[in-house]
Amino acid sequence: MAGSSLEVDLREQNGVLVVRFSGRLDWATYMRAQDVLLDHATKELVGVVVELDELVAESPALLVLFDVVWLSAVRWPGISLSIVVSDHRLRSTLESRGLPRHIPMYSTTSAAVGAVVRLKHEDRVDAPLPTCRCLPHVAERITERACERWGVQAMLDVAPQVAVELVSHVEDDGPLALLLRMRGDKLSVAVRTTARLDLKQWHIMRHNVASIAVCNFTMGETPAGGGRQVIWALLDVPEDSRRPPIHLPETAVFTRQA
To answer: How confident is the model over 161-176, as pLDDT tens digits?
Structure first.
């Protein structure tokens, strides 16, 4: 990807997305850099590593963008984001200014990739939803199949209804996407949309999800780049509810992306 003063190179290394920024980071390119990272951070299964040696920031304050993306990524979809700085002078400058504040920093890409935690049973579903009245039913069915596939029996009475609740509250003229994630003891149900919910809609939706969920849960919204948001609910999966996953044939609306 090329811009007037900022270039972005993407590659995969051992299942981790590596993003190399080169050129100038200024107030004109800040949002494009942030959108690129948010977009990919909400898609990747494992983690994102960002190489910064070839990036020149107009102001150190601009590097807060990596903290912004890191905070979003760890909340949903719960993946790691780290940066690589091998230049000693740049690294010293960053550390002396305390920027970025939260994101892990490594000297080599291989070290950053090696530090990514790989959960044993993580999986995901990214499914576009139809723009018709059957949308809630389709979302419910996709979520049911995911719960069966992942062997989380207790979630069969919870997650599909949470999916129905989410898609029913999002009013978007464009197509929605249902995003399901299974990581360890957490199952997330989410919708990617360009619509924004106001405080009243959030209150109603949280209340309705609370009446459905018989487990601990959290809800939130993560920017996904390009004016899109991911509205999500993260559900705790009881340990005693699990059974071995079963293998179901893939369908047009039930897809797994690597």
So the answer is: 999 999 988 887 778 8
